Amino acid sequence: MDLAYLWFFIVGILFVGYFVLDGFDFGVGMSLPFLGKDDIGRRQIINTIGPVWDLNETWVIVAGACLFAAFPEWYATLFSGFYLPLLLILLALIARGVSFEYRHQRDSLRWKRGFDTMIVVGSAVPALLWGVAVGNIVQGVPIDADRNFTGSLLTLLNPYGLWVGVTTLLLFFLHGVYFVGLKTDGQVKTDAETLARRLAVPTVVFAAGAVVWTIAIAAGRDAPLLWLSIACGAVAAVALLASVAANWARRDGWAFFAGALTIVFAVLTLWTALFPYVMPSTTDAANSLTIENASSTQYTLTIMTWAAVIFLPLVLLYQGWTYWVFRKRVSRTRIERAVVVAH
Q1: 327, 35 contact by CB (below 8 A)
Q2: What is the membrane topology noted in the UniProt record heading this document (predicted)?
Q3: How confident is the model at residue 326 (pLDDT cuts 50, 70, 90)?
């Protein structure tokens, strides 16, 4: 296989890892108004991702760096054309990160509520806009002969892009609520299981619509992996229904695992529907960016491949070790004791 095609799938896997890992971070953040009945409960929720959220977020940095190195033409068109939504994502991630670090610096209720709001907004905005961005990449955007994006922000806010955006928001929300149920105890855990049941129906409806719409778009153009996209969509649907069933049965671990599989195969559905393009042009098919015309030289891709072979396993081992160290539930009793000791 040509290394350009290999790196198309490697970049896709990196984004899969990011959406699965930072996806439940987004969901946990969005769950604060619904599950955090008091400050102890909100601390319990935030502490579920406290040791890992920054590590999860580094996946998007790695994915972006690999995109830049492996497909510079794609990177240039994407980041210039999608500048405003990507800037909004960056600002939201900064606000969320700052809130995690500064929320506990004062005992003021107003202070904490302000940072809680920033966590919610800083989680919901990326969850929505990442879906809008990926949806537009799959559907195609206006690109001229010089490979410049000729649309605007309103161009990106089209029905399909917004549908995919709402789908990713709901999937991440549900994924995060599963994680809260898995990692907490007491009332927060019970409320998380109840909230997941309420989220199930709209999530299933939007996810099903996104899969069907995506396959229809791919079927309307050259799509050699259409069969694989259909298969991935089917697996995502089964995994989503399995996660809902597991949550009803109060099997938190299985619900979270099936929710993670849902996101994995949902992203793969989009990625395989995109192949062999990286950014189709709706202006003229001849202006489309493909894997071949947007990639770096073979020499560059060879160096990147060796670097990935050496360092990627080390990163995965470190991340696995981190999750193993912080595998225990976040107990409300332990937080209450810490508050008593602090005062």
Answers
A1: no
A2: Multi-pass membrane protein
A3: confident
Q: CA–CA separation, 63 vs 14, rounded Å?
A: 5
pLDDT digits (tens, 9 = 90+) for 275-313: 999 999 998 888 899 999 999 999 999 999 999 999 889
Concatenated DSSP letters of 72-103: HHHHHHHHHHTHHHHHHHHHHHHHHHHHHHHG
Q: Are 225 and 68 in contact (CB under 8 A)?
A: no
Range of the domain at 300: 3-342
| Residue 281 burial (CB count, 10 A) | 21
Whichever domain contains 177, its CATH number is: 1.20.1630.10
66, two tokens: 């690999």
Q: What tokens appear for 174 in the block?
A: 């549900």
The pLDDT score that the predictor gives to residue 338 is 65
The string of pLDDT tens digits covering residues 134-166 is 999 999 999 998 888 888 888 899 999 999 999
**Planar angle of CA 18, 311, 70, nearest 5 degrees:** 65
How many domains does the chain contain in total? Answer: 1
Q: How far is CA 243 from the centre of its chain?
A: 17
Summarised one tens digit per residue, pLDDT across range 215-271 is 999 998 989 999 999 999 999 999 999 999 999 999 999 999 999 999 999 999 999
State the Cα–Cα distance between residues 56 and 276, nearest whole angstrom: 28
Q: What percent of the chain has pLDDT over 90?
A: 72
Q: Which of 333, 29, 70 is nearest to 176 (CA)?
A: 29
Predicted structure pTM score: 0.94
Query: Rounded to an integer, what distance in angstroms lies between the CA atom of residue 304 and that of residue 17?
Result: 18
Q: How far is CA 16 from the centre of its chain?
A: 7
Burial class (CB in 10 A: 0-12, 13-18, 19+), 320: exposed
Distance CA 164, CA 264 (A): 15
CA distance 119 to 28: 9
Structure tokens at 340: 């008593």
CA angle 141, 264, 246 (to 5 degrees): 135
